[in-house]
């Protein structure tokens, strides 16, 4: 009997009591649940939405440089103006953090500077004779106060479309690149829009610049870079906005394009990339934009006459009208791209996003329709006045 009791005692030492095991299991600490703030949830939702709408961009080159030296890798032509630091243009300046863009004619500049509260804002100034006018603050519609520390301005050749970088709740992290457009009726710039991925990330992304004549663009980012370094990407400026479709690419593939994991994956067969690289070399060598190429046009006057140079216009004032016509065409293209981008966001967004975008899309469509009518009318005015003069000369010739 004693042997049986001893064996039972030994067995109990090795058999796990279910109740004891349950108690031990309860002692395991549960993983803490991370509670995201409302702002963080909104930013996360925006990040996912922007990733899904990643734009198709061909990146032809990239180079890592010191942050203080990145502008030296932008090869914009003289027709696109001049990019520099504020202190490089104004030698008596004391704005080491400010960047400046001057237009082709050298008579208007856009730059950043701190306001009285220490927040970076955008300003403009005009050159009158040998003097620059007092800086005027650029009014950007920002009713929700989403933008802070605005910097790195770049104005397109249409004189209307402005790109810049800013921090704040409108950004998905650090500096993001935004686009806005000047509204001549109100004298203000419209509410800026985040240009999305792959240009923006949770790191700092800035100084988006496009040479429209060459169709080449640049932007800088410190994503995946050590402190003090940035990567400057050179890309082919797209004529229309296209995104990576979920029907043709997996979510992981789209995310890799959004993150610019490999620029080689954007090259296709490589022919377009080689052409783009040649254009960059031509700009750097000063051979990219000759005067005759800049003045070369194609404008139909009638069935028998087509002007191939801006100097072909005979009627006084028509050369200036034609330049105005090109600016309006560029503005119409920018507006059309913005409408298309908003439509994509509308299609992919929830009810809140759709309600916010609906009025904007309708207003932009109405404005674009008005602009197209003005373009057609200006084309007609130029064409009619040239034909009248040509017919008069022809009639005089036969008298």
Briefly note the structural class of the backbone: alpha+beta
- Compute the number of helices: 9
Quaternary arrangement of the chains shown?
single chain
* Rg over CA atoms: 29 Å
User: End-to-end distance, in Å?
Assistant: 145 Å
Number of strands: 17
Estimate percent helicity.
25-40%
Note poorly predicted spans.
Answer: 1-16, 18-25, 287-294
Question: What about the largest sheet?
Answer: 6 strands, antiparallel
Tertiary shape:
globular
Order of helices and strands: HHHEEHEEEEEEEEEEEEEHHHEEHH
Q: Averaging pLDDT over every residue, what do you get?
A: 84
Strand fraction: 15-25%
Q: What are the salient characteristics of this protein?
A:
six-stranded antiparallel β-sheet; alpha+beta; five-stranded antiparallel β-sheet; 17 strands; 23% strand; disordered N terminus; 399 residues
Report on the architecture of this protein.
This protein is of the alpha+beta class. Helices cover 37% and strands 23% of the residues. It is built from nine helices and 17 strands. It has helices spanning 2-14, 18-26, 38-52, 86-89, 251-259, 271-285, 291-295, 318-348, 351-398; strands at residues 59-66, 82-85, 99-102, 108-114, 120-128, 131-132, 136-137, 148-155, 161-167, 176-183, 188-189, 193-194, 205-211, 216-221, 229-236, 296-300, 306-309. Strands 2, 3, 4, 5, 6 and 7 form a six-stranded antiparallel β-sheet that branches. Helix 8 packs antiparallel against helix 9 (351-398). The longest helix is centred in the last third of the chain and has 48 residues, at 351-398. It is globular. The model is unreliable at 1-16, 18-25 and 287-294 (pLDDT under 50).
